[in-house]
Amino acid sequence: MGVFPAWFGRRRHERAGFTLYAAAVAAARDPYYYRDLGVPDTLDGRFDLVGLFAFLVIERLRDQAAPGPDLAQAVFDAMFSDMDVSLREIGVGDLSVGKRVKDMWEAFHGRSKSYQAALAEPGNEALSAALARNVWRGAAPDARSDTLAVIVRRQTAALSAIPLPTLARGEVKFSTALEAATA
């Protein structure tokens, strides 16, 4: 009986997890990030922003009462299921998909730890540095990571205001990047 109850708990939140993940993807596709902030419009740049927004949702859920941790796991599962499908669609061979997904998981995990630590720091200096290092793979042009740090803080605050039952229904709305940057 041991494994099945946990598995069924996760499956119960699968739809909400995919819906929350889809909202994170939609937020990460906002043209403002690529056009105005200079986030590289590449596979890596898009992965980094999708990972950032998925992290924000997962971070909001993971330490909550039930069903928060199961929902966080469902968002994570949705993300890496999508990554697997996306790699296959762009022609990555079946034999190397597993390794590529593992590499993506490790990158996501490292970025998540970096963002979690930076968000715990007062001000935006640590967060801006973490974003520059991960999203721009070094230094952001014209300190645009400072703007992204402001956006991340505002999105984090907005997510924290959404009641857990609303998130459990898969309901989340991110501000547009421009709204979050200028609010």
Tally of individual domains: 1
> Biggest β-sheet, characterized?
none
What percent of residues adopt helix (DSSP H or I)?
Answer: over 70%
**Amino- and carboxy-terminal Cα gap:** 50 Å
Q: SS-based structural class?
A: mainly alpha
Please report which band the strand proportion falls in: under 5%, 5-15%, 15-25%, 25-35%, 35-45% or over 45%: under 5%
Radius of gyration: 16 Å
Low-confidence stretches: 1-5
**Count of helices?**
10
Q: Strand tally, please?
A: 0
Characterize the overall form: globular
The topology string of helices and strands comes to HHHHHHHHHH
How confident is the prediction overall: mean pLDDT? 92
Give the helices and strands, then pairings.
Elements: H1 3-12, H2 14-28, H3 31-35, H4 43-62, H5 68-89, H6 94-120, H7 125-135, H8 144-160, H9 164-168, H10 177-182
Helix pairs in contact: 2-4, 2-5, 4-5, 4-6, 5-6, 6-7, 7-8
Architecture overview:
- With 183 residues, the protein is an all-alpha fold.
- The protein has one domain (3-182).
- The chain has helices at 3-12, 14-28, 31-35, 43-62, 68-89, 94-120, 125-135, 144-160, 164-168, 177-182.
- The longest helix is centred in the middle third of the chain and has 27 residues, at 94-120.
